[in-house]
Amino acid sequence: MKKDILIITSYFPPEIGAASNRIYHLAEGLEKRGFKVQVITPLPNYPTGKIFDAYKGKFKDSTLKDNITIHRLWIFASNSKNKLLRLFAMMSYGFSLFWFFLWNRIPKTVIVQSPPLLVAFISMLFLRSKKRKLILNVSDLWPIAGLELGALKKNYSYKLLEKIERFNYKKANLVLGQSDEILTHITKLFPEKETFLYRNYPNFEAPQLKPIQSSSNKIKLVYAGLLGVAQGIYKLCQELDYSNVEFHIYGSGAEQKQTESFIIDNPNLPIVYHGELSREELHKALLKYDLAIIPLLNRIYGSVPSKIFEYAKLGLPMLYFGGGEGETIINKNRLGWVAEAGNYKELNSVFSKIKKDELNLDLMNRIKSIAVNNFDFDNQLDGLEKKL
Q: CA 167 from chain center: how many Å?
């Protein structure tokens, strides 16, 4: 008999990005291992902050896809910079969750995604039971990350968020963390808490690599992902030394319009914005580039960008510009180069030392081999299954 499991998340396909991909692959992997999987998620709205056209006018939508039951609940969708509006958006989804909990049978095993912190809190508060196993999947440390990003200040609200964070850890039977830093933070607060390192390894077939065809002597640099404040792509466009580099950008987000305007205002610079692609289309496009950049405007404790593992499986060399544990993974596995987070002078210095002929098929195949052998999704999920 299949074991029931429920996953509660704020992001899920058709929304794009690392968060939705991570949860989808978790759900898909558990279903293939014989679990009867349900997912609760809001009506799709990320990153635009607007309900997708196919779901407009709906209060709830339940479908079966890939043998996974997906419950999409009402949310007041917003990506406004206004903190009160963002709070209301989270609380609206929290209200929908509470209503769902009242009228539906909840499985004995539940995986709750955090952040958002308040959504996780509502789930942990109303689902706690001696008969139920609550698993908290922590992908970023809030409120610490918010403080480091400048989105939060150490005041009464911050102290309240710290209390909510601790409540979530305390009520969890098992905590999954995507970095060693996350697990270290949690075990300092709750030394006896059971934890499991669950990184955001990709689940796709590694491609057959071919030499990159290029008529230019410049390195074809690519960024793909969220064009948000934390990534700092707009500032990167301003600070890059383009003497050895042409810069290609894929994605969308809060800084998209600024970035597009900068490109229009500086037609002499070799920057190309390609818009947004599906994950499958993006993987094909990335194989055309010499080097990927993974930037963070500031070093964020606990953060390990999932792009590291995704690009590695594609055989794409990386320049990591974010510090912390991500930098350690790049260096330890020899996946590319690193520059100190926020230090654009050092970044350009590193670029100046990279030779285009270094970025060859041998390097790409070596990186892909490291990913296949060390960042295996199925092996990791096998370890998690034993904990469920």
A: 24
Span 335-348, average pLDDT = 93
Within a domain: 213: no
What CA–CA distance (Å, rounded) separates 84 from 78?
A: 11
Q: Read off the pLDDT of residues 276-312 as tens digits, 9 standing for 90 and up.
A: 888 889 999 999 999 999 998 878 888 898 999 999 9
H/E element, 271: strand 271-273
Q: Tell me the mean pLDDT in the region 135-144.
A: 91
Would you say 347 and 339 are in contact if contact means Cβ atoms under 8 Å apart?
A: yes
Residue 108 is encoded by which pair of tokens?
């004995």
What DSSP letter does each residue of 100-166 carry, written as one string? HHHHSPPPSEEEEEESSHHHHHHHHHHH--TTSEEEEEESS-TTHHHHHHTS--SSHHHHHHHHHHH
Q: Which of 103, 31, 94 is nearest to 64 (CA)?
A: 31
Provide the CATH number for the domain around residue 285.
3.40.50.2000
Q: How many domains does the chain have?
A: 2
The residues facing 140 across adjacent strands are none
**CA distances for 292 relative to 236, 322, 327, angstroms:** 13, 13, 14
Is the overall model pTM greater than 0.85, yes or no?
yes
